[in-house]
Structures are given as structure tokens and as C-alpha cells.
Write a structure and sequence with these properties.
two-stranded antiparallel ribbon, extended, single chain, ATP binding, 233 residues
């Protein structure tokens, strides 16, 4: 208290107070901030000590550089989740090689199944297809695009063949608004005949280039045969 009293009266700012204020009033008015500051200064070391104790109990002791480099085995390795192995196995994919031609046969089986199913709906005399529905009555459709979306096979390789022709039908439907069934039938013919000539020993790159040249020639011929429609119904 004596130190606080002397520190207060050593300030020149106290002389600005009128003489009517007593010493107690000056102390109550001026020293409240200093008292709080002293109280915080006394508590700060205690808080630091308590925080250091808490951190030392929860975290390992610091390691010196000499110990770190001389004992590399003491470094803690990050913990791995027990499900990491399961996640890695779940992300693995099956790989198939066409050494004996079995992979190509299964792909062709999926393509042929889709072409046979959609070929029924082709043309003005096309027939309907009945689709099974798990949550309602069966659907009777005559649209190749709808049938393509519902086809799903159990064999993964045959299902890849389904996805190949499905991509061709979807692209044609997006560009022209129709013709998905025709695209699937044409794709089936190209894949089937292409597999035959490849098995006979022809180069697949040359076959692909020949198909592209044939497509360009057919498009130009169809353009000559086409008639522009000027009237509206």
C-alpha cells in the first residue's frame, strides 16, 4: 500500500485535482486501474504455470535435436485407421486381358443382346418391349432410348458392351433428338464385323480409318439424296 501511495503522489497529474478531494477519494478514483493491473500481473505467472502443467501432461516432452537424429526410431508414426485397408480394397478394380479372346466374346455378347432387344422396336412396324418395374406395374415402351436406360446385366464384361452401345445411342439422341435404336443396330454391325476381320489378322488402326472414310462417303451420298422441307404441317 505504501508503494502504491508513493507511486501515486509521484505523478504530476495528481496536482490537477482540486484541493476539496480527500486522499481516499483520490485513491478510489485514480488507483483502481493500477490495482487491477497489479492483480493481473500477479495472476499471469500462475496461469502460465497451470497452462504449462496441462500441456506437459497431455503432450510428450520436447526432444532435442541430438536425440532426434541419433534415435530415428523414436519418432512416432501416424496412426492408420483400421478401415484404410478395407477402403483400398473397395476401390480396387478388376482387370481383364484379351489373351485368349474371351474378353472380346463377352463384350460382343452384351452388344448383341442390346441390338436384339432394341432391333424389335425399329421401324414403323416395330414391336413393344415390356420392362419390369420393382415398385409398380410393368412398363410397355416402344422407345429405344428408354429401353437402353433400363438394361443392366450381371456379368461385368457384358455390361461394358451394353455401356458402349448405350453411349452411341445417347449421343445420337442428343444431337438429332431420335435415332438411338438405329445407332445401336449400326454399332452392333460394325463391332461384329470388325471383330471378325481383327481375328483374321488385320490391323485395327487401318480398320478404324476405313470406317471413318466410309462414314464420310455415306454422309455425302445421303446429303445428295435428301430433300429440304420448306412447308410446315
Amino acid at each position: 500500500k505504501i508503494d502504491i501511495f508513493h507511486s501515486l503522489f509521484s505523478r504530476p497529474s495528481l496536482f490537477s485535482y482540486p484541493p476539496k478531494f480527500s486522499i481516499l477519494q483520490i485513491l478510489n478514483h485514480c488507483t483502481i486501474f493500477q490495482l487491477l493491473t497489479l492483480h493481473r500481473a500477479k495472476l499471469k505467472p500462475k496461469l502460465l504455470v497451470e497452462k504449462t502443467r496441462t500441456m506437459s501432461s497431455s503432450s510428450p516432452s520436447p526432444v532435442s535435436a541430438t536425440f532426434f537424429f541419433s534415435n530415428p526410431s523414436s519418432i512416432r508414426k501416424p496412426r492408420t485407421s483400421p478401415f484404410s485397408v478395407l477402403n483400398t480394397r473397395a476401390m480396387a478394380k478388376d482387370l481383364y486381358f484379351n489373351h485368349d479372346g474371351s474378353t472380346t466374346k463377352k463384350l460382343l455378347a452384351g452388344v448383341e443382346l442390346v441390338a436384339e432387344l432394341l432391333g424389335v422396336t425399329l421401324g414403323p412396324k416395330g414391336r413393344n418391349v415390356v420392362l419390369h418395374n420393382k415398385y409398380g406395374p410393368p412398363k410397355i415402351v416402344n422407345d429405344g432410348e428408354t429401353v437402353l436406360k433400363e438394361i443392366e446385366l450381371e456379368d461385368p464384361l457384358e455390361n461394358v458392351g451394353v455401356k458402349l452401345v448405350r453411349q452411341a445411342g445417347a449421343k445420337t439422341n442428343d444431337l438429332a433428338g431420335d435415332g438411338s435404336t438405329t445407332s445401336v443396330v449400326l454399332a452392333h454391325g460394325l463391332i461384329k464385323e470388325g471383330a471378325k476381320v481383327i481375328a483374321a489378322g488385320m490391323n485395327p488402326v487401318q480398320i478404324a480409318r476405313g470406317i471413318e472414310k466410309t462414314a464420310i462417303a455415306l454422309v455425302s451420298e445421303l446429303s445428295l439424296m435428301s430433300r429440304e422441307v420448306n412447308s410446315r404441317i
